[in-house]
Amino acid sequence: MFIKRLCTVLLAVSLMTASISTTGAASVVSPGTWSIGDSFNLVSGTGNQANYTYDEMCNLYLNNYYNVQGTEIDIENSNLLYQQYSVEFDKINNDIASIKKLIDKDKDNVEYQQKLGELITQKAELYVNKETSIITYNNSSRYRDIQRASQISEFRDNIFKTKLIYEKSLIQKTMAEYAKLQANTKEISKSKDMAFQSDIDIYNADYDYYISQQELLTQKVNSNMENLLSSCGIDMSRALTIKVTLAPIRAISLKKFSDIEKSFYLNDYKNMQMGERLRILEGKISILKEYYKDSSNEVKLAVNEKKQAELEARRWLIERRALLQNYYSDYKNKYYEFNIKEKKANALYQKYIILLNKYNYKLATELSLKEAEVNYKIAAQEVWDSLFGYVEALGKIEKAVSGNVSP
């Protein structure tokens, strides 16, 4: 027996309020309008519920020890590595100074010359490690902004993904009811010339499949909620309700590509890292030239390494705009798709209500009514699917504005 923990997702406002009046023995349902509403609730556990808003939970998530410390550890580790490499770098410089004094006393000593070459090579590599290690620390403010934007997007994605999974679980129940109705021999005989046992077996199998899918999706909702609570530093067994208002998402107007592009170019973290790498490699070449000639393999290899880094930087300048354009195209499509999907769901809901009224007057079959219900509920789930897609696309744009675009 599949055991479920009570974990449901509820709409905070009525989405399909239908006023019913009685005419004779039949009920007439006024259509109303379908929409996803102004808010929804994520509810976990039973008993006395603690109430949280979306913003309150997001703040708990952002300030969670693991999220905060993860970023701060990266920054502190950058500083510690720099200190470590600096000590080693100073030691190499002292060793170089010592060997140069020995060379001044014995210029023809081949062993001293070889040792100096080895030390210069080590110094060049240590210089690269030392200067690379401090980049995160020197850009800690920008690094924190990027991490924060990524965490906000991740949290929001988890919230809307959980809601979407819940909606998918609901449609499985409706599909199961539809399959059960189709399996009814009397209904099959109404919709076909004759009923076949194989048809009934297929519908019964469909029923079992949809029920198992509902159970699986319910378990996923439970797991997502537990993970959400844990990531916010809340006991996973705690009963709580998270109210998520949709107004902030709906209120975000379509961003212009030029504005996004400008912000991204200004904050592009990868471009900054590449610029720093070119500066560091130039420093490496200068150190090697303290001992090696321009024609030496050591200098040639270092110069070639810098040229490759320059090519990578140039390639990134080309790729980053293409990546940004792809993100923006997806974001723009999702922005308009959501409204279209909502209108489609409303139209199918209207059709369902018309059939419901016909059914109440015995002018439509129960099977045709259930089919109409399935169609509009599938369309409703597609609205949530579209909204989640938009939220994901918006997150990528927000991360780009902070300076982070990844292939």
If you had to describe this structure to a student in words, what would you say it looks like?
By secondary structure, the protein is α+β, with helices and mostly antiparallel strands. It has twelve helices and six strands. It has helices at residues 54-62, 65-105, 110-133, 135-138, 140-183, 185-191, 197-231, 247-251, 257-267, 269-288, 297-360, 366-402; strands at 7-11, 20-23, 26-29, 39-44, 50-53, 240-245. The chain has a four-stranded mixed sheet. A hairpin with a 2-residue loop joins strand 2 (20-23) and strand 3. The protein is elongated and about 115 Å long. Mean pLDDT is 89; it is low at 1-24.
Helix content range of the residues, please? Answer: over 70%
| Count of β-strands | 6
Strand content is: 5-15%
Secondary structure category: alpha+beta
Radius of gyration: 32 Å
Total number of helices: 12
Broad shape: elongated
Mean pLDDT: 89
Q: What composes the largest sheet?
A: 4 strands, mixed
Strand/helix succession: EEEEEHHHHHHHEHHHHH
Which segments are poorly predicted (pLDDT under 50) over 5 or more consecutive residues? 1-24
Strand order of the largest sheet: 1-4-6-5
Cα end-to-end separation:
44 Å
Question: Topology, please?
Answer:
Layout: E1 7-11, E2 20-23, E3 26-29, E4 39-44, E5 50-53, H1 54-62, H2 65-105, H3 110-133, H4 135-138, H5 140-183, H6 185-191, H7 197-231, E6 240-245, H8 247-251, H9 257-267, H10 269-288, H11 297-360, H12 366-402
Parallel strand pairs: 5-6
Antiparallel strand pairs: 1-4, 2-3, 4-6
Helix pairs in contact: 2-3, 2-5, 3-10, 5-7, 5-12, 9-12, 10-11, 11-12
